[in-house]
Specification:
The structure holds three protein chains of three kinds. By secondary structure, chain A is α/β, with parallel strands linked by helices. Chain A is built from 18 helices and 17 strands. Helices cover about 30% and strands about 30% of the residues of chain B. In chain B, strand 3 and strand 4 form a beta hairpin. In chain B, helix 1 packs antiparallel against helix 2. By secondary structure, chain C is α+β, with helices and mostly antiparallel strands. Chain C has two domains: about 5-65, Electron transport complex subunit B, putative Fe-S cluster (3-methyladenine DNA Glycosylase II, Chain A, domain 3, Orthogonal Bundle), CATH 1.10.15; about 70-155, no CATH class. The radius of gyration of chain C is 18 Å and the shape is elongated. Chain C starts with a helix and ends with a strand. Classes of the chains: A alpha/beta, B alpha/beta, C alpha+beta. Chains in contact: A-B, A-C. Bound molecules: iron/sulfur cluster. Iron/sulfur cluster binds near residues 7, 12 and 25 of chain A.
Amino acid sequence: MMWVCTGCSCLCDDIEIEGDVVRHACRIGAGLYLNRSVARAEPLIDGKRTDIDSAIERAVEILKDSKSVAIYGLNNSTLEAQKIAMKIAEKISAYVDNGSKFGKLAEMILRKEIPSTTLENVKDYAYVIFYWGCDVHNSMPRHMSRYTYYPRGKKRQRGYEEDRFLVVVDVRRSHTAMLAKKNAVFIKTDDDGKLIREFLTALEGGIASGDVLRVVKELKKSDFNVIFGGGGLIEGLGNEFEEFVRFVSNVGYFIPADYRTNSMGFFKSLFEAGIPKANLEDLLIDEKVDTAIIVGSDPLNSMPFDVAKRLLKLKLIVIDPKVSFTSKMADVVIPSAISGVECGGKMIRSDFVEVELKPIFKSEYDDAKILRSISEGL
Amino acid sequence: MLRFAKYLKKVELKLVTYRDGFQVSVAVKDKFGDEFVEKSAVVIIHPDTAKTFGFKDGQIVKVSSYERCANLRLKVSEIAPENGALIPKSIYSCYLYSDKITIEPTDGEITTPNELLERYT
Amino acid sequence: MPSPMDIYKLLPKTNCKLCGEQTCMSFAFKLIKKEKKLEDCKPLFEPEFEEQRKKIEEMLKVVEKATETGLVVNEDLCIGCGNCIVVCPVHVYEDPEGAGSGFGVRLENPILRVENGVVRVVDVGLCRRYKEKTICVACRENCPTSAIAFLEEL
Ligand code: SF4
């Protein structure tokens, strides 16, 4: 059976499943499928076992009693489920956040303010490939072999050693950086802004360091070059996107390397609903919310202690297929299906290409159904 | 026998976190299993740092930031920045979140996620 | 993975040549490359060397797992990225639409395939190191977590 992996935003669609053998998916993806029945969540109200419908009812009651709600997560939910979440947000004027810092860049891509392209085009045409502030070998293991540096494509028939040039930028020698060997360079930097300015200077014929000049020389050999930017880049940029956009326009294209499975779907749903992206961490610091619905996310495993502590003061409704640190502390837990494994729908890949999922199993309750019931209850 | 470890000074390092693929795959499986602790309760330092301060791959260290601390397993690898410490993103890195952390040898056991969770309430 | 030096240290170190090699060191090398068998070193089977022999046997267990081409895969270190599958020149040639284009390998019996998230050796018969005796290290070179190794480099 063919399967679309929902382990990360690569959404690899060439996976074969035969009983308990998963072929071609990486460790993360294969594990998602093979360990699907381990550590499953149960419906809980105040830590006590209940049935799903009662848990949903309790969630609705809590929402009705709250003054200000945040909806958080949704990166592992389908577009269909995300849209229902947006409706709930509109209905009760809730804040919405997926915990990703790629919002600004995603919006710029959707508004066509920054040139972007597809992974298929990268495979067929890209020469210089930047990985800036992202260790994709770990976060999206098949990114380079499936879509970018290693595969041969239409105009790139001679293989990575001749037909591609790899640039890895990071604060440390990551596993991805270790792959920068022949026809490649690893640039170590603690100051992304400074390095971008150096690139801009060099592109305009100015003085720069040896590595930067070498890359600029390579950039000029092709009119199809691409930059993959990760969390490290965004952190490094702060809120200064202007120079980066100028840099991308000079180089070619930008594609976010946000590993969160349907993060781009989230941003598109948000954009289409016309809802501004909130930041739950800020909301918690400013004490602006009293209730949070957490969908398929585990903020206790991703938010700094000081902030996470404040999260636990709220009424918490967790919708998740698995037991998580946050679900352990929640007021209501509603078990859901693993998107792509136990329920279908659509998701959006890191390059904004829509992908139809191919679930192997069926489940009665998935994010979409649970959110719809909540929405109807309100 | 003298325990040299006891005489080592604390080392202050910049904290860098990263998404570790092996850690992610066990977190997706079960956050309350032993594998999660094995892959998450880890702090990685650069071989040069290890040599300078006499740390050994595999030893348990006490990692502190502000008034918080947890015992993690120390690993030595070139993937760590030269002047920093690398921790896989998880409840451990979140709990210890700060710019700088200190590392010192300890005889203690590795901190479990449940012990961390208790400190959140 | 043992080095020839590790093994040499445990050998009788008399350079007696009974094994057909000039030195014990070169015997150690050939042991790892599987060109010689431990039994070829007669003195090692005397009672006085028993302990050392057992240690060498332990070490050689790892070597045993290596394929005919000297390729050793450590699944625990593999993240299943598939770099090795896609860069393998034989895969590219035999399966241009599959592995050569970045997809999961479509050959019935490829050299390597990612199964359950880790790389598995399926059939080394196609490997250039086996067929053409060329020194190709493409798969090992593109594995940053050292899940793939070659005996002669150890
Ligand atoms: S790279 Fe991502 S989508 Fe592809 S198999 Fe791995 S986890 Fe799944």
